[in-house]
Write a structure and sequence with these properties.
CATH topology of the largest domain: Rossmann fold
Strand content: 5-15%
Distance between the termini: 90 Å
CATH class of the largest domain: Alpha Beta
Strand order of the largest sheet: 7-8-6-5-9-10-12-11-14
Number of strands: 15
CATH superfamily of the largest domain: Vaccinia Virus protein VP39
Number of domains: 4
Length: 869
């Protein structure tokens, strides 16, 4: 074939170069689509295989493993004669098709998974199989795209530089995809819309790539033709591959460590995670561009690569100090921010200040590694595929090792020490490879001369790197206990006075702490916020979650508690004489194994001595702790319960919205025995009106005759409990009062009195609303579903709000006399102290004036003026 004027055989030719900026734009679009897919697929598949550390590890391993396989397989399966742009176009179209298949096929995958899932090692293998089946096909195509495009370039310094620019452009697109998905597509629309947007990008990129291919010819370099001699390997190339693998290892390991620490500081919202990821990718993308320029003009790219790794020793230490020793002490109170947008800007600035320096060096490492092993005439696809695969293998090992082993067993401080040592090791290996006597120096020549020595600058760095590493690793600061306890509000509580911390632990999925104040009150902290405490308001809520369904069901036998917390809710069931089986489902092993032990008197020592998932008998009750996320357990268990109660973390925390979806409530309802009940915590503080109403409407969609029960703080709305019945029936206060007079119910009476309910039915004075009555209020509220998880995006805008009292007052405007909810002697109603529900006198008047039951249709809203506030 004659050389076309558009052929890239001579890269300097103007006709070939004119398409390079456009091809760079295509890679930006490809990266944008890839990040949208990654976010959507992880959310979709976590609904199937769960969100435990093992499940997340399998998802990440499958995603990145597919990228690695694709980069290795394409140069071996696709001939260099094929036009690179046509191959690239087909790959992009294939990714789009796979994106649709994953979206549409997820319900079928879930159905099959639930039908065959078991327990133990077999269940883990099945989770891995689901991850592989769903993620490997599209990610193999993603991983193959860069090697495919690389064949448009020659392995000259200028061509290698352009490969680095393509890599950087792909990362730049990923930044856009991360922000577009997190701040717009998933916040405003849903996972289907986000997928269709990514598919549209893929198909557009494929079409443009195909059109350009039709306008150009591809002439492979002579060395790639059939029968040509094999291009010799670069001297000591294995050291470069090992080092780029170590670079990937430290990059992804650091991302795991710093994401956990920064999410404490910023608040664990979906927006915080999007910002952290975007900043990380911005640094990688900019670094790749810098490295590409460097690789184009550097006479010794391997030395430049070594200097990058040496610089990582310093910059990793910089970030380690910033995230634990500096940023937490900046005088920032997020509640001062006039809007969420202002806070997001500040979060972005803090992340850039802390994380940007090392990410630039990691980004620069990739093009420098390409330049360090490139040989003239080499198959550029094979070159890029090998370096990319080595980097990805290291990244997989780093992410899994740090998330599953190093952080849970040794903590983030030791993890950062390990990152510094690993970066120092990679720099030392590269510098040693430049010495004259290093194995492989006598290999055939390449772009960088063999045996060129270290030079005086390299020799100085070689001596200094281990000294830097030792000093810096020894001085990595530990995470402040107050940051674990109070996260984004750390500085506020520093000014107010921090408690004394009894325990701080970094587990598989969460960072937890236990503290106490001078007055003896004890707190359980998880991921930077108080999740439970022994103060009266919190104790009342934790007991209400258990005592309400325990008393309404006349003879419950089995209970499921989703989320152990301090164990107070689970412990409240220990006092019921009829309950003989209690199952606690907790995703973080540290919580029941360590944290709950500190609350023994409050939780009736329910978890003491239980370390494994095997059930034990305590006081005649079969008690079992399941280490899984509650949704996945309900999805896969065949057991049914009389009571299911859930006290998840705030819905603004990323991932928690799955325990507030319509599908989750339907799942819970399916696992109730006849007459069974569900209770769920609904926070009013650190929330906004849209989030609270969404939670209520979603629950009442599944339990239309559900009820709301208020937990006040100083007569103002604080948090609440929603209660749903599988078989709706009025609550018989008279029967409950008689039951509480029996001797075997004395522990239940004491448990009620312990949190301020002096007379048994006083518990029901917390009644705050009936589902049918609240329909006018909830008419415009959004339903939180599996396919949109809208709640976490809505709630993420309200974590700095303090509107609980106002939200609760508005809800009470729709409360009517509870005659359709409760039955019993009117005199019994008169004995109840209707003071816990904010407007007790007005409610009591409504009760006593109601001579006949209300009609079945929803009653009109009661004006606020008619309530005695």
């Amino acid at each position: 074939m004659a050389t076309s004027p558009n052929s890239p055989a001579a890269l300097g030719a103007a006709p070939a170069r004119r398409f390079l900026p456009l091809l760079l734009c295509l890679f930006v679009g490809s990266g944008c689509a890839a990040l949208i897919y990654e976010i959507v697929w992880f959310q979709l598949l976590q609904l199937v295989i769960g969100a435990t550390a093992a499940s997340l590890g399998l998802l990440l391993g499958s995603f990145m493993g597919g990228m690695c396989l694709g980069s290795l397989l394409l140069p071996r399966l696709i001939s260099p004669r094929a036009h690179p742009l046509r191959v690239y176009a087909l790959l992009e179209a294939g990714i789009g098709i796979c994106g649709l298949l994953v979206l549409w096929g997820e319900p079928l995958v879930q159905h099959i998974y639930v039908a065959v899932v078991g327990h133990g090692a077999g269940a883990v293998m099945l989770r891995g199989l689901v991850s592989a089946v769903c993620l490997l096909p599209p990610t193999i195509l993603m991983g193959a795209s860069l090697p495919a495009m690389a064949r448009w370039m020659e392995t000259t310094p200028k061509g290698v530089a352009w490969l680095g620019f393509f890599y950087g452009g792909n990362i730049a697109g990923a930044v856009g995809g991360s922000l577009l998905a997190g701040f717009y597509l998933l916040r405003v629309y849903d996972m289907a819309t986000a997928t269709y947007a990514a598919v549209a990008i893929n198909f557009t990129v494929a079409l443009i790539g195909y059109l350009i291919a039709n306008e150009t010819d591809h002439v492979q370099p002579q060395a790639k033709t059939r029968g040509s001699a094999q291009v010799p390997r670069a001297p000591g190339a294995w050291v470069v591959y090992l080092t780029i693998g170590l670079s990937g290892f430290t990059a992804l390991g650091a991302e795991v460590v710093w994401t956990r620490l920064l999410s404490l500081l910023l608040g664990g919202t979906v927006y915080a995670f999007s910002i952290i990821l975007a900043v990380f990718l911005v640094g990688l993308g900019l670094g790749s561009s810098v490295g590409s320029f460097w690789a184009r003009y550097a006479a010794r790219p391997r030395l430049a690569f070594a200097l990058c790794q040496a610089g990582l020793v310093l910059t990793i230490a910089w970030t380690a100090w910033m995230v634990a020793g500096s940023l937490p002490y900046w005088p920032i109170d997020p509640t001062w921010a006039p809007s969420p947008g202002t806070m997001f800007q500040l979060d972005m600035a803090r992340c850039l200040w802390a994380v940007f320096p090392p990410t630039v060096l990691w980004g620069a490492s990739f093009p420098l590694a390409l330049a360090a092993v490139a040989a003239p005439g080499e198959d550029s696809g094979k070159l890029v595929g090998g370096v990319y695969a080595a980097n990805t293998v290291g990244a997989i090992l780093g992410s899994l090792l740090f998330s599953l082993i190093i952080i849970p067993h040794h903590g983030t401080q030791h993890a950062e020490m390990g990152l510094i040592v690993a970066a120092a090791l990679s720099a030392i290996l590269l510098l040693l490879s430049l010495t004259r006597n290093f194995p492989g120096q006598n290999s055939p020549a390449k772009m960088e001369p063999a045996g060129s020595g270290l030079g005086w600058s390299g020799s100085i760095v070689l001596v200094l790197v281990p000294i830097w590493a030792a000093i810096l690793a020894a001085n990595v600061p530990n995470i402040p206990a107050g940051l674990v306890g109070y996260g984004r509000l750390f500085q506020y509580y520093v000014n107010q006075g921090l408690p004394k911390f009894d325990f701080v632990g970094e587990g598989m999925t969460s960072t937890v702490a236990v503290s106490h104040f001078a007055d003896g009150s004890r707190n359980f902290h998880v991921s930077g916020k108080i999740e439970a405490s022994t103060i009266p308001t919190d104790m009342r809520l934790q007991r209400m979650l258990g005592l309400l369904p325990g008393l309404i069901n006349p003879a419950p036998h089995s209970v499921l508690i989703v989320g152990c917390g301090a164990g107070v809710t689970a412990g409240s069931f220990m006092n019921f004489p009829t309950i003989d089986r209690i199952v606690i489902c907790e995703i973080e092993p540290l919580i029941p194994q360590v944290v709950a032990q500190y609350f023994g008197p409050e939780n009736y020592h329910i978890v003491e001595g239980i370390k494994e998932a095997n059930p034990r008998t305590i006081n005649g009750k079969n008690i079992q702790i399941i280490y899984d996320d509650g949704r996945h357990f309900l999805l896969t268990t065949h057991e049914h319960f009389d009571i299911i109660t859930s006290d998840p973390i705030h819905p603004w925390v990323k991932g928690s919205a799955v325990l507030y979806t319509k599908e989750y409530f339907e799942l819970a309802k399916e696992h109730l025995n006849p007459g069974g009940l569900v209770t769920q915590w609904v926070p009013l503080y650190e929330s906004n009106r849209a989030a609270v109403l969404s939670e209520l409407r979603t629950f009442f969609e599944v339990f239309p005759e559900g009820t709301l029960w208020g937990n006040e703080d100083n007569s103002a709305g604080y948090d609440s409990v929603v209660l749903g019945q599988k078989d709706p029936a009025p609550i018989n206060l008279e029967e409950i009062a008689l039951r509480l007079q029996r001797p075997e119910y004395k522990p239940v009476v004491d448990s009620l009195a312990n949190v301020g309910f002096d007379f048994g039915p006083d518990l029901f004075s917390t009644y705050a609303g009936y589902g049918p009555d609240m329909q006018p209020l909830l008419a415009d509220a959004e339903i939180n579903s599996d396919r949109n998880l809208r709640l976490q995006y809505v709630a993420g805008f309200g974590l700095n709000d303090n509107a609980g009292a106002k939200i609760y007052e508005e809800i009470l405007n729709y409360r009517t006399a509870p005659t359709r909810v409760m039955t019993g002697d009117p005199q019994l109603f008169n004995l109840v102290h209707w003071t816990h529900a904010g407007s007790g006198a007005g409610l009591m008047n409504m009760i006593m004036q109601s001579n006949t039951p209300a009609p079945d249709a929803p009653a009109p809203a009661t004006p606020a003026s008619s309530l005695d506030k």
